[in-house]
Structure formats: C-alpha cells, structure tokens
C-alpha cells in the first residue's frame, strides 16, 4: 500500500521527544551545571505527556538519567517513560541532527538527512551518525530509517501538516549546505521526500548571534494550518527592526492554499541578552515545542516572559503552557525547540 507522503505538523500526535544530552566533550563543558537543569526540566515536562528518548556519549550518565527520570515518572504516575541509548555526539541540537519523520501509506518513515553543522561551522561527524545508532538500538521499532543525500536541519522547515512548508532562503540556499541545488531543485527534492506541494520562502528576518543562517524555528512558526506566529521588533533603534519588519510584510503577503491570508500573531520581543564578551544572543519566544496536550515555552528571565506566556495561551487555548527557563541555552546560540525533536505517534514504544 502506498499513498501521498505527509510531513506532520508539530501538533500532530506524538510518541516521544528526543534529547541529545550535553556532556564534557561538548561546548557545554564549562556550563554543564547551568544547562543540565534545563534539559532535566524539559525531560520532566515531556514525561507528563509522552515518552522520551535520551542519548548521551557518557554511558554511566545516560544510565543514571534513565533510572532517575523513570523513577520520577513512576512515582508521579506519568504516562511517559524514558528510553536511553549511549551514543557519541558532538553537541546537543537534536532538532537539527535528529530524524525527520513522514507519514506514508505504509506507516511512519524516518528520514536521515545529512547534517554538516550548519554549513561546516563546527565538528559534526558524530551527530551525523547519531540517528543510525538510535535505529540500531531499536528505538524506532519497525519504522524504517532511510538516508537522504541532502543537508537539511529540522529547525529550517515548518510544516502545516497539509503539504505547505515554511522556510528561509538564507538557510536553505546557503552554498555551504547543498551547493549544486538551486531553489527549484530544492523544492522538487522536498516534494519528493517530504510530500510538500508548496514552499513559502521568507527572504528577510534574522537574529543576532544565530549560527544557523536564520532557521525558521527562531522566526516564524505554524500554529495551525491557517495561523502563523512570528517574531517582531518594536524598537526602531534595534539592529533587528528593519529585517523583521520586512519579514512581517512578507508574511502578510503569503496566502493559504485556498487563497486566503494567514492569521498572524506577533510574539513579544525579549530584552537583549548578551554573553560575557558582549555578543548579543538569539533569545526568541518562537523557539517553543508543541507536544501532546502542552506547549513548552522558552523564557529568559526578562520582563516580557509573562506577556509571552499569555500570548502563547491565547494561541493554544486547549494546551497547557509550560514555561521553561532557557537562558542558559542561548549562551550556545539556541533554545528549547533547538534541543528537541518530536517523534510522531506509532514509532517509539516502551
């Protein structure tokens, strides 16, 4: 049996969320005491709703995590359980090195795109092999893991679950990823492997301190097939103002497949966060994660956090909004969505 391929929207039913745990061999080495509690908060929130897959290069650490988190889930009668896999990793950005799952008439299919650390910016070989380690460990059950000879990160695409993808030209057209392919060739490939019939390209929008070449999941997100939320900057003196204003105009021009404009919701703009050297960091409320029954929202200990929670509750009135302090994550230039990858229903079982 075969049928049209579909890349599910993030709000589709899930079986698990994947985390690649930080360890001393990553760039988190000097900040492990700060960042591990963030990962633990994400893990505990996920277990309230679904299973969790954790990999870590350090065998004893991943065993300890599985034992402690499963005890927590059992003691609190939570539905989720933890599957742990010792596996080498260069870093922790599961959104970008994790599998991208499509639904087919034959069931879920996990696509193992190539990962080259956002165009060769950092070491990537261990991360690029991680999905195969998980598959060999039986994490994905009977769902096949299929290699795709194309560099693509999960954070660079958004799906409405109905065949429309949202992305940025800054990322997908960067020559350091797929230099031989132009926009048309990339659209054809995405249609073939992800089942997309439309690609909406944003040509504007960026965040200072971002290593990803403007991943869409830091800028604009599908909240429903007809609804997009997005980052906007109200301060005309801010370096982001012009680019984000231009992005907003592009979003207003986009049309749904039925010809209607999208409902648009602007997200609050957090106060600037800088590292010790004064570099501005890419804090964004757009980097949330939708899971079964909830939305995990990154907050940063700034004045706009409460407004962001309120706005997000308005966008997702039927889901619990769970704020998680992700300020430690932005010191490595990412946030909550960046360190997670959802696995759709029917894949992970414990």
UniProtKB/TrEMBL annotation:
Family annotation (PANTHER family): AGMATINE DEIMINASE-RELATED
GO molecular function: agmatine deiminase activity; protein-arginine deiminase activity
Keyword flag 4Fe-4S: no
Designated name of the protein: Agmatine deiminase
Keywords: Hydrolase
GO biological process: putrescine biosynthetic process
Coiled coil: none
Entry keyword annotation includes Heme: no
């Amino acid at each position: 049996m075969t049928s049209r391929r579909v890349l599910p929207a993030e709000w589709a039913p899930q079986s698990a969320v994947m985390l690649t745990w930080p360890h001393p061999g990553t760039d988190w080495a000097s900040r492990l005491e700060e960042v591990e509690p963030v990962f633990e908060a994400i893990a505990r929130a996920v277990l309230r709703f679904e299973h969790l897959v954790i990999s870590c290069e350090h065998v004893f650490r991943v065993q300890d995590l599985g034992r402690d988190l499963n005890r927590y889930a059992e003691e609190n009668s939570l539905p989720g359980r933890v599957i742990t896999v010792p596996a080498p990793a260069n870093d922790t950005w599961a959104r970008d090195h994790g599998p991208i799952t499509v639904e087919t008439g034959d069931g879920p299919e996990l696509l193992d795109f190539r990962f080259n650390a956002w165009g060769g910016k950092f070491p990537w070989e261990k991360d690029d092999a991680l999905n195969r380690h998980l598959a060999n460990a039986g994490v994905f059950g009977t769902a096949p893991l299929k290699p795709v000879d194309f560099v693509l990160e999960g954070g660079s695409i958004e799906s409405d679950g109905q065949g429309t993808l949202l992305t940025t030209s800054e990322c997908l057209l960067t020559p350091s990823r797929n230099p031989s392919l132009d926009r048309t060739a990339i659209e054809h490939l995405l249609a073939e492997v992800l089942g997309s019939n439309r690609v909406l390209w944003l040509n504007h929008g960026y965040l200072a301190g971002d290593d990803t070449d403007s991943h869409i999941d830091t800028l604009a997100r599908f909240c429903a097939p007809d609804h997009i939320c997005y980052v906007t900057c109200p301060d005309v003196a801010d370096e982001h103002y012009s680019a984000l204003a231009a992005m907003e105009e592009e979003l207003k021009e986009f049309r749904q497949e039925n010809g209607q404009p999208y409902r648009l919701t602007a997200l609050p703009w957090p106060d600037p966060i800088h590292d010790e050297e004064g570099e501005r960091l890419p804090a964004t409320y757009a980097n949330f994660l939708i899971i079964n029954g909830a939305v995990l929202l990154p907050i940063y200990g700034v004045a706009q956090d409460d407004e962001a929670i309120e706005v997000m509750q308005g966008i997702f009135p039927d889901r619990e909004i769970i704020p998680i302090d992700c300020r430690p994550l932005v010191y490595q230039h990412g946030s909550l969505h960046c360190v997670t990858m959802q696995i759709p229903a029917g894949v992970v079982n414990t």
